[in-house]
Automatic annotation (TrEMBL), chain A:
InterPro entries (UniProt xref): TPR-like_helical_dom_sf (IPR011990)
Compositionally biased residues, Low complexity: 104-115
Cellular component, GO annotation: Golgi apparatus; TRAPP complex
Biased composition annotated in UniProt, kind: Polar residues: 23-44, 75-97
Domain of life: Eukaryota
Region Disordered, residue ranges: 1-59, 75-149
Protein name: Trafficking protein particle complex subunit 12
Pfam family, any one: TPR_19
Gene3D superfamilies: Tetratricopeptide repeat domain
Automatic annotation (TrEMBL), chain B:
Organism this protein belongs to: Umbelopsis ramanniana AG
GO cellular component, one term: TRAPPIII protein complex
Biased segments, Basic and acidic residues type: 72-86
Protein name stated in the entry: Trafficking protein particle complex subunit 13
The Trafficking protein particle complex subunit 13 middle domain, residue ranges: 208-332
Domain Trafficking protein particle complex subunit 13 C-terminal: 359-452
Domain Trafficking protein particle complex subunit 13 N-terminal intervals: 35-204
InterPro entries given in the database record: TRAPPC13 (IPR010378), TRAPPC13_C (IPR055428), TRAPPC13_M (IPR055429), TRAPPC13_N (IPR055427)
Family per record: Belongs to the TRAPPC13 family.
Positions of region (Disordered): 1-37, 54-86
């Protein structure tokens, strides 16, 4: 009997898996989330090579995404890099972005922060070496020169070379050109920038947004950014956010990503208030508007890289949780909940239903006021219906029915929910009745009208359906794109079902709607 | 009747082959003409809730960012109480809206689902058509289903631009290629009867792959494992997964457990959720016991165990229903003599770690042995122990004992004392049963397992 523990035994890895009750039965395979489909959509984020310089620079989209990820790694690095590099002499940076940036006026404030600035610079240099290869991305902004502080940052942010040009034609105008002869082509209502130049920024933007001319919004913000005083950092950043959001609304995701990349790592030192004590005495925190960080987190998901967005949203949510306890609890809690909701969106896309449901249920139970919030509960119920779980949806909706019947909004929700339950059970007549009841109270309830049209189809009333839908579309010019796109899609399906002359009808509709559609409309809804 | 000269300039008349002059025939051949009626078919799978992408609005939005919501939307949202100042949740960000969207493509259709379509007959021409008859049939490889037929009551008149609609539905019960054949017959103004047919082909595949594994226990109980895999293209919500046993069995569904913190004593599913994603696999476990405990011969020798009844739903409640065929097993061969242990002492430890009851090392214990005669003849049984084949649990007592006569289907029980030598999980075996009349020998290498505690 050899009782001595041999040294070899300690070093070899465990060869035997601890028994999970192994017997003659096969151990059951893992149940869920072994979905190979979702794994095939997994992006390439996880495989960041350690020395990208050794590689061939990949094609543009991949490279930009690559650099964006390195900024996440950079976040952790910047925290650790700082103490290490306190005494380190800066390696001579490759050509400073602003060789003649003024060093004078901010030197006093940045004197104390010299080390931090140095650290940021070094971090910036490191950042450069890490992820950026290829032409445009090299001109990143993470290399702030020492001691120049806010103004140089402001200068770097307002430089006109940061912007990419927006393509002048879009899918909608292409479609018009292709199908409608020149003399009949409607003119898209566009706002001349000169009209709004005189207004204050916010008012001008509201004007442009009301007409859905996101293109003009993007151009306007570009002009304003270039004109803004470089020391008004907060304003510059807000303008940047508006521009990027406009690009996203135009569905120019690559462009938005490229410009966002120019801003560099949103979490780095330069973007905090402490770094620019001269400009913002006493303030602390991150200068970047929260909405911009949310946008940068959502952007990969909009380009179908869902896992990246899920990762970033989770990191942001954790930060909200952390800041929850310090100050402004209400605010951070609201933000945290919004992040969870956006997370649920992407989880739904990758078909992780149990997790989506658990997040939404948690939101309903823990984050609401104590009193059940009708909109939130209805959303959870709708989620169940979309997944096919009618029983749980009904259970959720029941909680709502016991509430105040006097509130018309709640009454309408209850009816809509019940109509959707009937749709799921294929009881088209009861569904139609509920929707009729909603419309009796409010004939302009667009979602109800849309759903009514759908019910009419399934009940076999094509003509009536077409008539109602055409009426809806003609009335809803000022509605959000989301609803119009769905209504148009449904209507074009109806046209196709009706006759062979569907194409003409669709084009006619396109012509009719064109002046009101604005920018960023999903033209595929027309099915042309 | 046109003269030969003018007939040549008539574009519609088809020249009669072989004749030098195109003479107009008494009935002009118009099979090339477009039909006056058109038929449109659309599959009516469920609509789905449309998704939308809304921009995030921060509670602390600057005036510039607030400008990103159009004024109309702001009014609309106020109208809908979504800007409730007391609300902590901005549910606008969730993508799933209230508006339904019609299905964009035919999609896949699977066995067990209901195929419903919308047929629309439309008069595209400027003439009136009479006596419109419509017939729709679903043809599979073996059968033909008549789904709609208006031959008995044809539509008398169809004006230009008028349309006639039908919704038909049919539950799909066969695999393979299905063809929807729609034939329209009508009479034109001139009295000619015309008809046309359209064929719509689609494939029906199996949505679930079911495999089974059977474990037969000695006492007639059967553990049935059913492995279900989702091979369709959609995620399924399993509404119902029920096992219906064959008539000789009682069944127990082992796929639920009582959660410890569950006050209502409701049962929780072992799988945690009802959603089966594409390619996911689940194994369900069922315990079947023979209904008739005394006469379980039929239950032991039958090869049909029962069937699975599955109901699932996909997007917005699109339902499917399937029943598997009878699940079978290979019939276990029944030994003439059946040996079973009972009254095996189990271990129970008190809260402070003391052994309340159980088997201690080097302390004798006894178990009961039940022997049944499943043959058709009388037996005279002798039980003996083979020391070489016994593990560390030895027989304590006489190594051979006469058990007496056993008539067919009779059971006798006896107590046997054992002595455990070492602690741990030990097997009891090494017994031999001999029938003195026929000389039939049954060796029991492994009767049961016992856990032997340390002797402190």
């Amino acid at each position: 009997m050899d009782n001595v523990l041999k040294a070899d035994n300690i070093l070899t890895p465990a060869a035997e898996v601890p028994g999970i009750g192994r017997n003659s039965l096969q151990s059951p395979p893992s149940a869920l989330n072994t979905d190979p489909a979702s794994q095939s959509q997994a992006d390439t984020f996880d495989t960041i090579p350690p020395t990208p310089q050794a590689q061939r620079p990949p094609t543009l989209p991949y490279q930009i995404i690559n650099s964006l990820t390195s900024t996440i790694g950079g976040m952790a690095n910047s925290a650790s890099a700082m103490p290490q590099q306190q005494g380190r002499e800066a390696a001579s940076p490759t050509s400073s972005y602003f060789p003649d940036a003024p060093h004078s006026n901010e030197s006093s404030s940045s004197g104390e922060l010299g080390n931090a600035g140095q650290a940021a610079k070094n971090h910036g240099v490191e950042n450069r070496k890490r992820g950026y290869s290829g032409s445009r991305a090299n001109r990143s902004l993470s290399n702030a020169s020492v001691g120049s502080g806010g103004v140089s940052l402001g200068l770097s942010l307002t430089n006109s070379t940061l912007f990419y040009d927006i393509p002048m034609s879009d899918a909608l105008s292409d479609l018009i050109e292709k199908h409608i002869s020149p003399e009949k082509r409607p003119r898209r209502e566009s706002v001349e920038l000169s009209d709004v130049e005189k207004l204050k920024t916010a008012d001008a933007l509201q004007e442009l947004v009301n007409r859905k001319s996101w293109r003009s919004v993007a151009r306007f913000t570009r002009n304003r950014i270039v004109q803004t005083n470089p020391s008004h950092l907060a304003e510059i950043l807000q303008l940047w956010y508006v521009r990027l959001q406009a690009l996203v609304n135009l569905r120019l995701y690559q462009l938005a990503l490229a410009e966002l990349d120019k801003l560099g790592d949103l979490n780095r030192q330069e973007y905090t208030f402490e770094y620019h004590q001269g400009l913002f005495p006493g303030k602390s925190g991150i200068m970047i508007p929260f909405e911009l960080r949310v946008l940068s987190a959502n952007l990969p998901g909009l380009m179908k890289h869902y896992n990246a967005s899920i990762e970033r949203l989770t990191i942001l949510a954790m930060e909200c949780q952390r800041l929850n306890s310090k100050e402004d609890t209400e605010l951070w809690r609201k933000r945290e909940v919004s992040l969870y909701i956006m997370l649920a969106n992407f989880l739904l896309e990758i078909k992780d239903f149990p997790l989506t449901i658990s997040i939404m249920t948690k939101i309903v139970n823990t984050f609401s006021n104590g009193a059940a919030e009708p909109d939130v509960i209805s959303t959870l119920g709708r989620l169940y219906l979309q997944l096919g779980n009618i029983q749980d949806a009904k259970k959720v909706f029941k909680g709502l029915e016991s509430q105040e019947a006097s509130d018309p909004h709640v009454k309408r929700l209850v009816r809509m929910n019940s109509a959707l339950c009937h749709v799921a059970a294929a009881d088209w007549s009861p569904a139609k009745e509920e929707l009729d009841a909603i419309l009796a109270e409010d004939p302009n309830d667009y979602e109800a009208v849309n759903n009514l049209v759908v019910c009419l189809i399934y009940l076999g009333e094509l003509n009536q359906a077409i008539a109602v839908m055409e009426d809806l579309i003609s009335k809803s010019n000022d509605q959000a794109h989301g609803l119009i796109e769905k209504a148009v899609f449904n209507l074009c399906t109806l046209y196709e079902l009706r006759s062979d002359t569907a194409m003409e009808k669709k084009i006619w509709k396109l012509q009719q709607l064109h002046p009101y559609l604005g920018d960023g409309f999903h033209v595929e809804s027309f099915k042309i | 009747m046109a003269s030969p000269n003018t007939a040549r300039s008539n574009p519609l008349a088809k020249p009669v082959p072989g004749s030098p002059h195109p003479t107009s025939s008494p009935q002009p051949d118009d099979s090339q003409q477009p039909h006056l009626l058109a038929l449109k078919v659309m599959r009516l799978s469920r609509p789905s809730l449309g998704t939308q992408v809304t921009a995030y609005v921060d509670p602390q939005a600057s005036p510039m960012s607030a400008a990103l919501t159009s004024s109309n939307e702001k009014k609309d949202q106020e109208k809908r109480h979504m800007q409730n100042e007391h609300s902590k949740i901005d549910i606008r960000n969730f993508g799933l809206g209230e508006a339904l969207v019609l299905p964009s493509a035919f999609g896949n259709i699977y066995l067990g689902e209901t195929f419903s379509t919308y047929l629309c007959v439309n008069n595209e021409s400027k003439e009136i058509t009479h006596e419109v008859k419509m017939k729709a049939e679903l043809q599979t490889s073996s059968q033909r289903f008549n789904l709609a037929d208006t031959n008995d009551e044809p539509l008398a008149i169809m004006e230009p631009g008028q349309s006639n609609e039908f919704t038909i539905s049919h539950e799909i019960k066969e695999l393979g290629v299905h063809i929807l054949v729609c034939s329209i017959q009508y009479t034109t103004v001139e009295g000619r009867s015309r008809s046309f047919r359209k064929f719509y082909k689609f494939q029906v595949a199996n949505p679930l792959a079911v495999k089974t594994k059977v474990n037969n226990m000695i006492d007639g109980k059967v553990f049935l494992e059913a492995q279900v895999q989702n091979v369709s293209a959609n995620t399924m919500m399993l509404e119902r997964m029920k096992f219906e046993p064959a008539e000789h069995f009682l069944h127990e569904d082992l796929n639920f457990f009582k959660a410890e913190d569950n006050k209502e004593n409701a049962l929780q599913s072992t799988f945690g959720s009802q959603y089966l994603n594409q390619h996911d696999v689940r194994q369900y476990l069922y315990l079947l016991t023979p209904k008739n405990a005394e006469d379980d011969r039929i239950a032991r020798t039958t090869n049909t165990l029962g069937k699975l009844d599955i109901v699932w739903r996909t997007t917005m409640g699109e339902m499917g229903r399937l029943q598997t065929s009878q699940l079978t097993r290979k019939v276990p061969i029944l030994d003439d003599l059946q040996v079973q242990a009972f009254n095996v002492p189990s271990t129970q430890i008190s809260e402070d770690g003391q052994l309340v009851k159980g088997i201690r090392a080097e302390e004798p214990f006894s178990i009961g042995i039940r022997i049944s005669n499943h043959s058709a003849q009388n037996m005279k049984v002798v039980l003996s122990a083979v020391k070489a084949k016994m593990g560390s649990v030895l027989l304590s007592g006489v190594s051979t004992r006469q058990l007496g006569d056993l008539s067919p289907e009779q059971t006798i029980e006896t107590n046997v004392e054992f002595f455990p030598l070492s602690p741990g999980l030990q097997k009891i075996g090494g017994l031999k049963l001999v029938d003195l009349i026929t000389g039939y020998i049954k060796e029991v290498d492994h009767l049961c397992d016992v856990f032997v505690e340390y002797d402190d």
